[in-house]
Amino acid sequence: MDDKTRALVTALHEAPNEPGRLEAARAHLMSTGKPGSVVKLLEWWSGKALDPVAASAALLDAARLAASDKARAEGLAQKAVTRAPENPGLRDLHEVVRQEEAVRLYAQRLQLLTEKRAKTALVIGAYIDYANIVAKTGRIDDAIEVILPVAEKDAQAAELAVDLLQQRARANPGGSSDDLRRAVRLLRLQSRQRPAEAEALLGRALGFDPTDRNVITDLEARVAADRMIPHWEAHLNALGSVTEAETRIKLARALAAAGRTGDAVRMLKVFEHEPSIAAELQTLRSSRRDASRVALLADLEAELAWRRPPVARASPPGPTRLRPCLRCRRRRRRRRFRHAPRRRRRRRRPPLLVDPRRFRRPTSARRPAHRISRKKRRPSCRRTSDCSKLRRTS
Description:
By secondary structure, the protein is an all-alpha fold.
């Protein structure tokens, strides 16, 4: 043993529960290639540890390191189960020991947890682990007997129980009805406990027993009518010639709402001898006839709209405006500009010491501010000065 190893082991012996000392000694021994020394160190430390779960984890690690020696590994695993059965790492016992020994250790762990009255989650987990390892050995009946007591308390346990019951039903077709009924009952119970997954769980239950009316009732209470169509169809197909008038009417209405009125009429026509189904069939036929008439009218309206000439734009409400002809408008425009007053130019003030008469315009060159023509004008229209060629504009 080198000096560093001796120093680490001595420090660990002096204070076994000091954090970090076990990891340091273990890492150093593993780096030097001495797994056997690590196994001995972990086994010794588990007897000194104050935390039973940590001690059980150390024993399980030692069993993994001693996997080449089956007897030694099984002995260490047995010590780990006895020291702290509540250790969550013990769920992987089947990876450390042989399958037969794992079955025995899982059963012992379950018994210890039950005697200690451990938490419900730990006990249910032990049941699930035990049932899984028993099922891997091919003993499906024993696994079902193990998991059924807790199947109604936990979702994972219920899933495992349903899978095991389904396996046994496939292997034994003669007695499959009882197993499938148990599976359906578990799935219905889980649908109440897990509402978000109710449709999937009940759909699986309906696959096990399509004739179960209770499953259909639960589905109708939780699923919308448009999504109930495949479930109703599966149920009625399984029933065959059974009337089931209420369910058939519900399916027919859902099909009609989904635009499949023809399928609804064909489905109800077989059971037309029932009064309720006959009344519903008459209603569907009349609605189908009305729908066809509405569709025909819509097609005719579209055809007429395509062939109809464009409609003239209606005149806006209010008095009609009269607009003169182009010739009169031009004359009025010239007359307006001709008689408009002209702007007078601002006279520049003459500079000082200059005769202002030099800047005065001659009288002959002056023009009046308003030029008025006395020539008699002929009106642009015959009767009045307004244009007689008026046209109505919108």
